[in-house]
Write a structure and sequence with these properties.
heterodimer, A: Rossmann fold, B: alpha/beta, Rossmann fold, two-stranded antiparallel ribbon, 15 strands
Chain lengths: 347, 259
């Protein structure tokens, strides 16, 4: 007999994403109120190790499928398998981490099972047998409660919104092998590889983010190479500025973010954009350098635990939400700040 | 090539959205085409320029969604369709996807349907994948670049932005593609485009017209609130020199115990 609360463990190349264990933490909040245990679903190839890990994090039962069709994540075969398992065992809730994979998988399973999906939730409670979720909407400008009348209730949890339990090697659970639902010739897409792999810490699960805005191009003491035109010179200056931002991020083990203005001006690729039309992040520490703090940027970072703002303009809106502010030139502040933090963290 | 692009009307990103007396309001800020969807429109137009054919823009929404459709027409889309009826006002993503899938089927012989990655009001971000699933088409989401699209051989190759980097995925047309912002900057509507759009007759379809059932949405939103006011007391750090300021700031950050 499978449990009422299921978790989808998001794994890639035999390694579970840290957010998957946060989902187990969220599931524990539900089983505390709904009773029963937690069933984990692990799909992929060489997924067995992740399945054993799932029991140590608190899964009582694990469905695992090791199949070559599941080697690279593709939403179609993953959804067909998960939907089939859910049809057979009728869980009440399936929780997924909010990743590109988790969101798309939940979306497709919702179609297969004719139910609703509630993505990117930050809190859960049980009321009259239903899970009432809390999720930010309008880029975090408002908070919404949502419920789903159909079953299973499909929920993706926001990265860093729930805490992962500590793994306990003495915990065990039953691991059941299941068969894949579709064969390779029924799958509509093929993963040909990766043209670029992302290096360093990704924005979504970073505990520390150092971000740069328009201001990173304003270092008057820099002399750009003579062969650049005005526009190129500005971008060149900005890239020198982002080296300082990146240097601080590296010392803190964090990721580099940017405002929309910096991305639109071509200073840094879009992958780094924080805001309503970029990534919504919630790190422990957010250091905004040369960012004024437009409302659409605030929407992407307002739930950061500690916000630090460095800006020349004392009237910049970012100071209203910052715990600490420095009214000054980021080019003068960042190098000694990076050095000071490096020394103190190594001490 | 027959192209559909799906768009939504939303409050502008600069709008101050608040709840007043239980109602969501954004003051006098304008409603605009969802910014992500502008990239989808741009992508649709680029594909049309490369392969010929026509682009139809579709929106599910109230009367005000006409503005989003007109914006897409002014950018260069040939046709627009509004799908509207009272029961769709509180549609969840599954109902919206079924309606869009039925509309795409009614339009007929569609090679590709483009979407933005998510709407900036509900931030749900599953409509493209769900529409693909309903249609039984390949779902190519979060696409940053289309490296190949051949309506003759029906092949398509894209680069998706996922956590591990740029993933190269191949599929077959017809397909659903949702695009990211780095696909290319949307064009501004031309003067001629705006004139044409202002005179365009936009047909309104109901669920009965597209042969889909209007069901009660499974997901409901019983409560919307303003986020709790964050009580932030800002401490401005200063010193005699940048070094002193930086050292003080470093100590303050370490005292917060977040590192």
């Amino acid at each position: 007999m499978a449990d009422k609360v299921w978790v989808y463990i998001d794994q890639n190349q035999g390694e579970a994403s840290p957010a998957s264990w946060e989902v187990v933490g969220a599931a524990r909040e539900l089983t505390g109120q709904l009773g029963g245990g937690i069933t984990a679903v692990v799909l992929g190839s060489s997924a067995k190790g992740v399945a054993e890990q799932a029991t140590q994090y608190g899964a009582n039962q694990v469905f695992v499928c090791d199949d070559s069709t599941l080697e690279e994540f593709r939403a179609e075969p993953y959804a067909s398998l998960l939907s089939g398992l859910a049809k057979e065992h009728q869980p009440d809730v399936i929780l997924f981490p909010t990743s590109s994979r988790g969101r798309e998988l939940a979306a497709m399973v919702a179609v297969d099972l004719e139910t609703g999906v509630m993505p990117d939730v930050t809190a859960l409670e049980v009321q009259e047998g239903n899970v009432v979720v809390t999720r930010p909407v309008y880029g975090g400008k408002l908070i919404s409660k949502a419920v789903c009348s159909a079953r299973p209730q499909l929920i993706t949890t926001r990265v860093r919104a729930f805490s992962a339990p500590d793994p306990d090697p003495s915990l065990t659970g039953s691991i059941e092998q299941v068969e894949s639902a579709v064969s390779e010739d029924q799958i509509l897409t093929k993963v040909a590889g990766y043209s670029e792999s992302s290096g360093g810490v990704t924005l979504n699960d970073a505990a520390v983010i150092v971000s740069g805005g328009r201001g990173v191009s304003n270092n008057p003491s820099l002399e750009p190479p003579a062969d650049l035109d005005e526009g190129e010179a500005e971008v060149w200056k900005a890239q020198q500025g982002f080296k300082l931002v990146g240097g601080l991020a590296e010392v803190l083990g964090g990721a580099v973010g940017a405002s929309r203005a910096a991305v639109d001006a071509g200073y840094i690729p879009y992958d780094h954009q924080v805001g309503q039309t970029g990534k919504v992040v919630s790190p422990d520490l957010y250091i905004a350098c040369g960012i004024s703090g437009a409302i659409q940027h605030q929407a992407g970072m307002r739930t950061s635990k500690v916000i630090v703002a460095i800006n020349k303009d004392a009237e910049a809106p970012i100071f209203k939400m910052a715990r600490f502010g420095v009214v000054g030139d980021l080019f003068e502040i960042l190098p000694p700040l990076t050095e000071a933090l490096k020394d103190k963290l190594n001490a | 090539m027959k192209i559909v692009v799906c768009v939504k009307q939303v409050p502008d990103t600069a709008a101050k959205v608040v709840v007043e007396n239980g109602q969501v309001t954004w003051g006098d800020a304008p409603l605009v085409i969802n910014p992500w969807d502008e990239y989808a429109v741009e992508t649709a137009l680029l594909q049309q320029e490369a392969h010929g054919g026509d682009v139809t823009v579709v929106s599910v929404g109230g009367e005000d969604a006409r503005e989003a459709l007109k914006h897409a027409l002014a950018m260069g889309c040939g046709n627009a369709i509004l799908i509207s009826e009272p029961g769709l006002e509180n549609a969840d993503s599954l109902l919206t996807s079924r309606v869009l899938a039925a509309a795409i089927q009614k339009i007929g012989d569609v090679d590709v349907a483009f979407f933005g990655r998510q709407a900036i009001d509900g931030d749900v971000g599953v409509t493209a994948a769900q529409t693909a699933r309903v249609l039984g088409w390949p779902s190519l989401t979060l696409v940053s670049e289309i490296t190949e699209m051949d309506p003759g051989s029906k092949s398509v190759k894209v680069e998706r932005s996922v956590e591990e980097g740029r993933q190269v995925v191949e599929g077959q047309l017809p397909a659903v593609i949702s695009v990211m912002k780095d696909i290319g900057e949307p064009r501004y509507p031309s003067f001629m485009g705006i004139r044409k759009a202002s005179r365009a007759e936009i047909p309104v379809w109901s669920t009965a017209d597209i042969g889909t059932e209007l069901v009660e949405p499974a997901v409901t939103w019983p409560e919307l609130t303003n986020p709790p006011q964050q009580e932030v007391v800002t401490e401005i750090i200063s010193g005699e020199s940048p070094q002193e300021t930086a050292a003080k700031l470093a100590d303050k950050i370490l005292e917060e115990k977040v590192l």
